[in-house]
Design brief:
alpha/beta
Length: about 475
C-alpha cells in the first residue's frame, strides 16, 4: 500500500547466485502497467551502464515489458556512441574492403574488414557469383519450403553428395544454418535417458541444443581431457546413451581442440563423438578439412558439423554422419523439419565454392600464410598468441571495457573494421578484439591493421598483460 492507502504492485529482483541484490538496476522498479510509466526517468545512459547490467539483473515487475523499456533508453543512447561501432550497415561493396553507412572522421566510409567469416574470399569470387545468378535464373529466388515439403532441389542433392565424399561419411543432411544444425542434432539425438557432455566454452548453438535436449548435460573444463575423463567416469554409468561434443576450432579464442585425446576418452567410456568444424573447415588440416583431419580422427568421429558461412562466405550448415543417424535427424531434428531450406542459389554458390576449394589449394595456402603473418604481428605487439596458431580467429585481449571503446573508435576512424567483444560475451578480464584473417587480405592490408592497432594502444595507454600478470578490473 502507498501513503494514500492504495494498492500498488512492486517488482523485486530475484536473489540467487547470478543476480546481485545491489546490481546497477536493482533500484529501478516498475510499479504499474501502462503508459504512465516513463522509462526516460531512469538514468540509463551508456556511460554508466553496459549490456551486462541488463543480462545480470532480473526483474519481477508486473509489466512484462518494463525491462525492455529500460533497455530501450540505454540502447538509444548506446547506439549514438561511436566507441563500439554499432551502426555497421554495409553499403554496396564486397571483398576485404567494404563501405559502411558509418562515416569516418575524415568523411570517408571505406573500411578494411578484419572481422569477416568469409575466410577464403569465396563470397565475391566471380565463379561463385555466376553460379548463384545462374541458379536464380533456373530455380527462382527461394527454396519454397522445408526439406520435407518442397525445399530440396537436385543442387541440394549434389552439395550433400560432395560433402559426404569429402568427409568420408555415408550421408550428409543440410540445415539452413550451423546454429540450426547443432541445435537440431543434439536435441534430436539426446533423449531423457541419455547424457551429453560438452566443452564449457562451446558455441551457443551447442549449449542451446543441450538446453533443449531431454537428457542430462555436463560440461568439462576447456580442452581439459582429464576433466572430461573424470566426468564420464562419474556419470556415464547412470545413462543409456552418451555424446561428447566439442568444437574443432573455438570461435572466440581461435584455439584447436585436442581431438585425438578427446576421441580416446570418449571411446573409453562408450560415448559417441560430435565435432563442430565451423571455424576449422577450410582453414586447418592437410587439405583444409578441419580439426578431425589435423588429428587423423575423421573415421572415429561419429558426427561432423560444418557451416557454409566460413568455407564459402554463404549461409547454411550440414551434418555428415552414418546413413542411420542422418535418416533419424532428417525426420526428428526439429530445426530441420520445420525450417525452410537454403535457396538453390545458395546451394549452387556453396557447391561451386567447394569445387574451387578442392581444385585450387593456393587459396588455402594464402589464408594460412596470412594467419601466420598476422599472428606474428600481434605477438610482436605483446599479445598472447601461440607461435603455432593455426586458425583464422585471432583474439587481441584488452581486459578493460573503457580502453576497448577508445581503441575501437580509433580503429574505425582509421578505417579498420574489427569486432569488439565486450562483457558479457566474454569474461570481464577477457574483453577483446576478435580479428579474423581472410585469404584475400594482402600483406599491406594486414600491416596497416597492425599499425593502426599499435597507435590505438598508445591512444588508450594500453599494454597487453603478460602471462601471470594479475588482471585489471574492467
Amino acid at each position: 500500500f502507498n501513503t494514500t492507502g492504495d494498492k500498488v504492485a512492486v517488482g523485486l529482483s530475484t536473489v540467487d547466485g547470478r543476480v546481485p541484490v545491489d546490481g546497477a538496476l536493482s533500484r529501478h522498479l516498475t510499479e504499474t502497467i501502462g503508459d504512465e510509466t516513463n522509462a526516460y526517468e531512469y538514468e540509463l545512459n551508456s556511460e554508466k551502464f553496459s549490456l551486462a547490467d541488463f543480462r545480470e539483473n532480473s526483474e519481477n515487475n508486473v509489466d512484462l515489458f518494463s525491462k525492455a523499456q529500460k533497455y530501450g533508453v540505454f540502447f538509444r543512447d548506446w547506439e549514438k556512441s561511436d566507441r563500439y561501432g554499432n551502426n555497421n550497415v554495409r553499403l554496396a561493396s564486397m571483398g576485404p574492403r567494404v563501405n559502411l553507412k558509418r562515416k569516418r572522421k575524415n568523411g570517408r566510409n571505406d573500411y578494411l574488414i578484419m572481422g569477416s567469416n568469409d575466410y577464403l574470399g569465396f563470397s565475391s569470387h566471380p565463379e561463385v557469383l555466376k553460379a548463384a545468378k545462374d541458379a536464380i535464373d533456373k530455380y527462382g529466388f527461394g527454396s519454397t519450403g522445408s526439406p520435407l515439403t518442397t525445399g530440396i532441389s537436385d543442387i541440394h542433392e549434389q552439395l550433400s553428395a560432395l560433402l559426404a565424399q569429402m568427409f568420408h561419411k555415408e550421408k550428409v543432411i543440410l540445415f539452413n544454418s550451423g546454429y540450426a544444425a547443432n541445435l537440431g542434432t543434439i536435441a534430436g539425438l539426446i533423449q531423457a535417458q541419455d547424457l551429453v557432455v560438452s566443452d564449457m566454452i562451446a558455441h551457443a548453438s551447442i549449449q542451446d541444443g543441450m538446453k533443449m535436449a531431454q537428457g542430462a548435460s555436463r560440461f568439462f573444463k576447456h580442452n581439459n581431457v582429464q576433466h572430461l575423463d573424470g566426468l564420464l567416469e562419474e556419470h556415464r554409468k547412470d545413462y543409456a546413451g552418451s555424446l561428447v561434443v566439442t568444437e574443432g576450432v573455438f570461435s572466440m579464442d581461435g584455439d584447436v581442440a585436442p581431438l585425438d585425446e578427446i576421441v580416446k576418452v570418449a571411446r573409453k567410456h562408450k560415448s559417441r563423438i560430435m565435432v563442430d568444424e565451423a571455424h576449422s573447415f577450410g582453414v586447418i588440416g592437410a587439405t583444409g578439412l578441419g580439426g578431425c583431419e589435423k588429428y587423423d580422427v575423421l573415421d572415429q568421429v561419429d558426427i561432423v558439423m560444418g557451416t557454409f558461412s566460413k568455407i564459402s562466405g554463404s549461409i547454411g550448415g550440414f551434418i555428415a554422419t552414418s546413413n542411420d543417424v542422418a535418416d533419424w535427424l532428417y525426420w526428428l531434428a526439429r530445426s530441420h523439419m520445420f525450417s525452410v531450406s537454403i535457396p538453390p542459389s545458395t546451394a549452387a554458390a556453396t557447391l561451386k565454392s567447394l569445387e574451387i576449394f578442392n581444385r585450387d589449394k593456393s587459396i588455402l595456402q594464402s589464408l594460412q600464410a596470412n594467419i601466420k603473418h598476422f599472428s606474428n604481428g600481434l605477438r610482436s605487439l605483446g599479445f598472447d598468441i601461440s607461435q603455432n596458431h593455426e586458425s583464422a580467429v585471432l583474439p587481441a585481449v584488452i581486459g578493460d571495457q573503457e580502453k576497448l571503446g577508445i581503441m575501437n573508435k580509433h580503429l574505425m576512424d582509421a578505417g579498420v573494421f574489427v569486432v569488439p567483444v565486450p562483457y558479457p560475451a566474454v569474461s570481464r578480464t577477457k574483453i577483446r578484439f576478435r580479428f579474423t584473417v581472410i585469404a584475400s587480405h594482402t600483406t599491406s592490408d594486414l600491416d596497416y591493421a597492425l599499425n593502426v592497432l599499435e597507435s590505438a594502444m598508445e591512444k588508450a595507454d594500453f599494454r597487453p598483460q603478460k602471462q601471470g600478470d594479475k588482471p585489471k578490473a574492467a
